[in-house]
């Protein structure tokens, strides 16, 4: 992995410095209070900057309080947080990175780690994270922010991407959703189920679809990536580091994606449905099942139900009361169920100017503060997620929410099948796969959904790009 000579010398020097003190389980109120014995790495004043999206409903609203609390714990340090929307988070970060002046801390999905590693802007935090601090984080999500032996960031949460059903509609269609939650379903079973969820009006027009998935905007790559996990393609590379989307399993998946639209179970205009429209269609009864599903959607549906009952005008227009049911993604090609594990979190970045030893230590302090203890406890609670640090699991939360226990059990069953992160894929190889995703897979998928190309044509295009990038011997041939 490419490293700058200066960085190597810097990290060697850092290893001689005192390590961060622990945060694991020593407080129920704050991640930072567990680090209260630290002076922030020295007497000198220092400012740590962070670029962060609206992780949960109240996350950005608490930024000022976070900054004050961090400063109270470390009086010589200032935490300055810049808010970003989900839509412009990546663009803002990339603009700042390209200008050579990125924030010290930024929020990304772990799947994008290799992109920034290839740009050589990441900072390895291993030298400044004590074993006790690392032990506070669950092992599986922690590894998602590793490449090789380097720890480039800290995880904020781990989520399983699911699909979500309307309980009433599922039961009207005779679907045993409780069994599916625990035992899963095959594509053939799913295809039959969503066909039963279709409702047409007197004019023969579809008033309710069986399945709707957001495939436009920020969700443009989600549909294919999530289904691929359960189609025998858990990663872009197999254990021999051969690119997997050249397998016939990929063609089989593309064929299924087109079939669900041609069946009439999904809208013909699927390629234009973004995340907001997808959720609106679910709340207004225009689909039986929606994707991608997130644990927090149960709470979003519940809150909208309360607004409907109270005749609150802020309820989604024309929405109906919905009991949200969390469901696993179906399996394809006879493959085993492998959930799409989404681990998001914080990375440490350098600009044109190399950061000092003390500044790197302070970045790690701030990152640990943001990703554990009460801060992590509260955003995890709002997202209906189990925290991934012991300190957050032991922390008090500001508000309690009612939960559907069947959904809780389903989430636990799906999480138990999550695969650990791949840390063996070379940075350059992973970056090349992301390039194929951006330049070929996403635009070709949009064309497939719009019925402008066939599954075979998309498969051929992806295969040609993969062979060009990795060679005939670097791709799966079956």
| First-last Cα distance | 31 Å
Pick out the low-confidence regions.
1-42
Using the CA coordinates, give the radius of gyration.
Answer: 23 Å
Reading the helices and strands in chain order gives HEHEHEHHHEEEHHHEEHHHEHEEHHHHHH
Residues in β-strands, percent: 5-15%
Mean of pLDDT = 90
**Largest sheet features:** 9 strands, mixed
The total count of strands amounts to 11
Q: What structural category do the secondary elements indicate?
A: alpha/beta
Helix content: 40-55%
Number of helices: 19
Taken from the alpha-carbon principal axes, the silhouette is globular
Describe the structure in your own words:
- The model is unreliable at 1-42 (pLDDT under 50).
- The chain has helices at residues 5-14, 63-73, 89-98, 113-118, 131-135, 139-143, 167-172, 177-183, 187-196, 222-229, 248-262, 275-283, 296-309, 357-371, 373-382, 390-393, 405-415, 427-449, 455-470; strands spanning 46-52, 77-83, 105-109, 146-147, 150-151, 153-166, 199-200, 206-213, 287-293, 324-327, 340-348.
- It is an alpha/beta fold.
- The chain contains 19 helices and eleven strands.
- The strands form two sheets. Strands 1, 2, 3, 6, 7, 8, 9, 10 and 11 form a nine-stranded mixed beta sheet that branches. The chain has a two-stranded antiparallel ribbon with strand order 4-5.
- The chain is globular.
- The longest helix has 23 residues, at 427-449.
């Amino acid at each position: 992995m490419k490293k700058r000579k200066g960085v190597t010398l810097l990290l060697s020097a850092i290893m001689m410095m005192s390590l961060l003190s622990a945060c694991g389980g020593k407080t129920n109120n704050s991640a930072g209070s567990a680090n209260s014995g630290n002076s922030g790495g020295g007497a000198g004043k220092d400012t740590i900057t962070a670029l962060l999206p609206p992780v949960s409903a109240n996350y950005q609203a608490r930024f000022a309080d976070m900054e004050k609390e961090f400063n109270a714990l470390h009086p010589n340090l200032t935490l300055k947080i810049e808010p970003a929307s989900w839509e412009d988070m990546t663009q803002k970060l990339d603009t700042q990175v390209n200008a050579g002046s990125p924030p010290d801390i930024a929020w990304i999905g772990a799947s994008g780690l290799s992109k920034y590693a290839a740009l050589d802007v990441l900072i390895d935090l291993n030298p400044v994270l004590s074993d006790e601090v690392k032990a506070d984080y669950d092992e599986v999500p922690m590894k998602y922010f590793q490449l090789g032996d380097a720890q480039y960031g800290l995880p904020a949460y781990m989520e399983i991407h699911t699909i979500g059903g309307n309980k009433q509609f599922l039961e009207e269609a005779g679907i045993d959703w409780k069994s599916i939650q625990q035992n899963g379903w095959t594509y053939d079973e799913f295809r039959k189920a969503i066909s039963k969820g279709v409702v047409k009006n007197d004019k023969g027009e579809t008033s309710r679809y069986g399945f709707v998935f957001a495939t436009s905007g920020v969700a443009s790559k989600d549909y294919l990536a999530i289904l691929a996990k359960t189609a025998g393609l858990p990663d872009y590379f197999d254990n021999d580091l051969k690119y997997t989307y050249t397998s016939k399993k990929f063609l089989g998946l593309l064929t299924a994606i087109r079939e669900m639209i041609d069946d009439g179970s999904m809208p013909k205009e699927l390629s234009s449905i973004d995340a907001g429209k997808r959720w609106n269609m679910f709340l207004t009864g225009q689909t039986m099942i929606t994707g991608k599903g997130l644990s927090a959607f149960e709470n979003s549906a519940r809150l909208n139900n309360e607004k409907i009952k109270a005749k609150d005008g802020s309820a989604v227009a024309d929405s109906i009361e919905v009991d949200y049911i969390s469901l696993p993604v179906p399996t394809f090609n006879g493959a085993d169920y492998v959930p799409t594990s989404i681990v998001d979190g914080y990375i440490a970045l350098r600009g044109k100017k190399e950061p000092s030893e003390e500044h790197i230590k302070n970045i790690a302090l701030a990152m640990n503060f943001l990703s554990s203890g009460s801060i992590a406890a509260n955003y995890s609670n709002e997202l209906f997620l189990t925290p991934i640090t012991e300190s957050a699991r032991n922390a008090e939360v500001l508000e309690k929410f009612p939960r559907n226990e069947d959904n809780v059990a389903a989430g636990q069953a799906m999480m138990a099948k999550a695969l650990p992160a791949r840390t063996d894929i070379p940075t350059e190889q992973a970056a090349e796969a992301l390039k194929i995703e951006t330049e070929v897979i996403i635009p070709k998928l949009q064309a497939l959904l719009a019925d402008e190309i066939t599954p075979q044509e998309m498969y051929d295009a992806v295969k040609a790009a993969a062979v060009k990038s990795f060679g005939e011997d670097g791709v799966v041939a079956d």
